[in-house]
Design brief:
The protein is mainly alpha-helical. It is built from twelve helices and two strands; from the N terminus they run H-H-H-E-H-H-H-H-E-H-H-H-H-H. The chain has a single domain, classed as Rhomboid-like fold, CATH 1.20.1540.
Length: about 210
């Protein structure tokens, strides 16, 4: 009986690890890069001139590096909360694919929206896009929280575009907050949320299956 319980616990742990794999991978990769500091930032950040010279892979990697540890902690907290609330909307592989598309897509839009922005790092644009996608998934499931979240996101990015970001956050991360990236993330996130196939809103109807 003890052996059976041990095997069951091990199987349950592995299952939870797999189910939460996008979260663990992002936390691990971004944490290591935050620890490496300036060399990692220089190598992986969004940089207009270097992208113009063909280094388009930075549209993916720029999401993974941060200005400092506080920047990483802020974004990691947001990442954990979003995953905890919305991870059941899609299977881990589908979330991984969606984020893989969202990451470069919102920075490509940023490149067009704000050509004067020469460099950028961080998960914040991706997180805004992820929230927008999750909100649309809830709207598609006719869950009222989705409407509130979408309205709140639109209001937030509109405020930031008019009045700028919080001075406290700017001071904490030692960099200008790229509010344009938040806007780009929300736009791309909404589009992906509308176009993504076979969405099942688990917390809308209590279903235990998602695509």
């Amino acid at each position: 009986m003890q052996q059976i319980n041990s095997n069951t616990n091990s199987s349950s742990f592995i299952q939870r690890l797999v189910q939460n794999s996008p979260l663990w991978v992002l936390l691990l990769v971004t944490g290591v890069l935050a620890y490496l500091g300036d060399p990692a930032r220089e190598l992986f950040r969004y940089h207009v001139e270097m992208q113009n010279n063909g280094e388009w892979w930075r549209l993916w990697t720029a999401n993974l590096v941060h200005t400092n540890v506080f920047h990483w902690l802020l974004n990691s907290t947001g990442l954990i909360l979003i995953w905890w609330i919305f991870h059941g909307q899609l299977k881990p592989l589908s979330w991984s694919l969606l984020l893989f598309i969202l990451a470069p897509a919102h920075l490509a839009l940023l490149y067009w929206l704000a050509p004067e922005l020469r460099w950028y790092v961080g998960l914040s644009g991706l997180l805004h896009g992820w929230l927008a996608t999750a909100a649309i998934f809830d709207v598609r499931g006719d869950f009222w929280v989705g409407y509130l979240l979408l309205a709140g996101l639109i209001a937030k990015v509109s405020w930031e575009m008019i009045y700028g970001a919080s001075a406290q956050v700017t001071e904490l991360i030692h960099a200008h907050v790229a509010t344009e990236a938040h806007l780009a993330g929300v736009i791309v996130g909404i589009l992906l949320g509308l176009l993504w196939p076979n969405v099942k809103c688990m917390h809308c109807d209590g279903s235990e299956h998602s695509h």
